[in-house]
Write the structure tokens for this entry.
Amino acid sequence: MRIGIVGCNGRMGRMLMEAVLSAEGCRLSGGTERAGSDVIGRDLGLLLGRDPVGAVVSADAEALFAASDAVIDFTAPAATLAHAAMAAKLGKVLVVGTTGLAKEDEARLAEAARSAPMVYAPNFSVGVNLLMALTERTAAILDQDYDIEIVEMHHHHKVDAPSGTALGLGRAAARGRQVALDSVWCKSRDGHTGARPKGEIGFATLRGGDVVGDHTVMFAADGERVELTHKASSRAVFAKGAVRAARWAAGRPAGLYSMRDVLGL
């Protein structure tokens, strides 16, 4: 399977390329960076300190889609929407791990997915997606006497908050409670906030150091607290999950899928 990586020279892009090169039955078809980047024209293998792979960094994303069976995108919302349009035009698999997409962005992604198979997830770690399934089930079992709080921590370079994974966990908890997340969430607290409303789903965001990603979902009631936690120590788990999603999507009908679909959860 020919897999291309957009934004290939970033931290996540490099991890994705390594994952493709390590995956049986997969070939790295190319990578893109912004026009003017000093890595344009370099062989992707040499960029990673490996032997040459015969594919080079380009600024032409549409050419990358044309040369690939699937493209993996962990970039930024505006770029992702442009890439979704290319995938739809050419009928290619697109795997999206970009965070920070607004509701209208997600709607545009879903529209593009009517013409090509796309997998979109806030987190491609198998463990995190298991955590989401457990969160939904736990929220359904524990009633509103259990307050739900989601705590996440990431490295100091992360630009969006709460993290896409934290929001995904919030949506899972809301599904379990059969409510809309945006009707019950509290993304931050400051000053005299008053008593905590019953049924609220709260978020706490921490940033610092080189933390790859820590997420905890707390169910707190009088007398006891249940905590579900996942800690990632390497971005490699996200890259491996994204490649797994690309391979799963090959040959699927057009549509917007999630890692729940990929993992059969």
